[in-house]
Amino acid sequence: MCGIVGYTGKELALTPVLEGLRKLEYRGYDSAGIALATTTGHKLWIQKRAGKLGNLEEILGSTIPESHSGIGHTRWATHGGPTDLNAHPHLDNDGKLAVIHNGIIENYLELRLVLEKAGHTFKSETDSESVAHLLSDARKQRKGDLAAAMRDVCRQLRGSFTLLAIHSDDPGRIVGARRNSPLVVGIGDGENFLASDVSAFIAHTKRALELGQDEVADVTGESIVITDLTGKILPHNEFEISWDASAAERGGFEHFMLKEIFEQPKAIADTLLGRIQGLDEEVTKGINLAGIEKVVIVACGTAFHAGLVGKYAIEKWANIAVDVELASEYRYRDPSVDSNTLLIAISQSGETMDTLMAMRYAKERGARVFAVCNTNGSTIPRESDAVLYTRAGPEVAVASTKAFETQLVAMYLIGLHLGRIRGTMSQELIAEIEHELSELPAKVEQILETVEPLRELTRRFNSATSMLFLGRNVGFPTALEGALKLKELAYMHAEGFAGGELKHGPIALIEVGTPVVAIMPAANSLLAEKMASNIQEVKARGAVVIAIADIDLPAADYLVRIPKTHEFLQPVLSVVPLQIIAYEMAIVRGNDVDQPRNLAKSVTVE
Ligand code: F6R
Predict the structure, then answer these.
(1) Whose C-alpha lies nearest to ligand 1, atom 7?
(2) Is 178 strand, coil or helix?
(3) From the CA of 303, how far away is ligand 1's center (Å)?
(4) Which residues of the chain have pLDDT under 70?
């Protein structure tokens, strides 16, 4: 999704703006642009290009004017293709005011018609350009007060937005606003930053403040004024960023994704730290977990798969019904939800619009809302009654790996917590799960020692056009996750199935040579034998079986051994080889591992 950066202060603005855009590349984008307010000129200096940041840098040339404030944008196309003209910033007709935008302006068409009638000429097909024209008129009416103009304009907009605007007649000032999309201000010394998230400026400052819904920031190098849309001045909601700048770098790995796969043992250990014996009051203080009649989990993509695994554990341990819902579907079917519903929203970014909207829907109907999130201060935890932060650290690769692992851990911790307070787990079971959870980091570490042979094995299937994943019980969502990873990274057909469903249709897909990854249930599980039969069924039709199992399995053509654990915890282990298979297949096919085509890290549109 679009990335937004602004800098105003004592330094030349170009460097922090470009650096910030680099840090936001992980969000996914297809064009980039910057606008600088120069110290001499009467118009803004603006450059923008379709494609990667390198394309923009190529056209900057050596005659960059002196400027101490500027805004930069990476665009992920929604309205209008990824072209030079549609790239942000967008200018008003005087060439003096520039705007960058993340989100969607839902009423842009009607606004555009009115503006065109009033004599404005549009250059792009975007919804965002309307804001530049509206702001230009509003600023004139407000006698040059850009912040007042921004407040006027925000009241006219429908949809979601983070906006930054700059004007050449007031070069040291940047005005930002947000609704349903994120905006943080980095507080420096004689300089300030604005960005979609803190990674854009953590190299410069650890002090930040977040803007709430429908708030406007009026920022210069020396001052920050936050107001609501009526102009009322609001207190600063300042926080200290705990992430280390170097945590967001690749640290010697070929790709962020591989680095993040190797960070999984630490991410799991960090997420468990101090929580195995029970979630502390810090996590649960805002929510009453007594008397819940049902649990609903809403999430998207990989986070949804974590939720599906969570269903098995929470239902069994807390003896309560759990529904897992695709967030994008949930609110549109008028589901039954009330004050006895515990809604768990799982999101790495905390900004996924589908999840946010599903959560708001349930909250409005009285549900108690619990977030599982990796990003401090993002919208989903901010709007929840309670939050369990996964401590995966910054996840830069678009394909989620360590965040998924920590989401699984969060599900187990919630299941265990509910089981304890509802008195539905025996002391023996609690002790067993506590023990097994604490062993997970070392067991994942052990699997990571087999990465190289697994990469080699994956290369054997280079010419496959399709790969199928089979699992039962918690192995089924793991199979779905393995297939999703392969689709998004290797751009190949992949599907995950429940082993028992094979005979109801999917088995027709099996041809001689079709690779099938079988996620074996824990050896002591009742389903181990059933899955062994599924392997025989596909083998009899010519499939080549790669089994992920905690015992030897002669029936498999290839075996990836994983350590033993409690059956519900197994996805934490069995997903690791699946991540490696997808990673290697993407490399073999020459794909962009960290930023797969068409995908964005943070999906802030519905
Ligand atoms: C896949 C992936 C996505 C996200 C999904 C939800 O690798 O990363 O499927 O899991 O877009 O994102 P969050 O967790 O940020 O809400």
Answers:
(1) 399
(2) strand
(3) 6
(4) 41, 243-252
